[in-house]
# Entry
Amino acid sequence: MKDAINEITEALDQQMELNFFMARKLIELSPPDERKHLKKELHSRLSTLRERTTKATLALESLVGDHHPPRPSVRQRIKKWFSHS
# Structure
C-alpha cells in the first residue's frame, strides 16, 4: 500500500510540474498586456490545485499510517517558478 501511495504521489507531483510548465508557456505566448492578469489567475488556480493535491496525498498517507509531509522539493520548484515568471 505504501508503494502505491508513493507512486500516486510521484505521479501527482509530475502532473503539477507539467501544469506549471504549461502555465509558464501560456503566459509567455499571451499578449504582453494580458500577462499580469493571466499570471495572477493561473497562480490562484494552480495554488488551489496544489493545496487539494497535498490534502489528498496526506489523506492517503494517513490511511496507512505514514504521516510524512509533502516533499519540499516540489514546493520549492513551484515557488521558484512563480518568482521567475
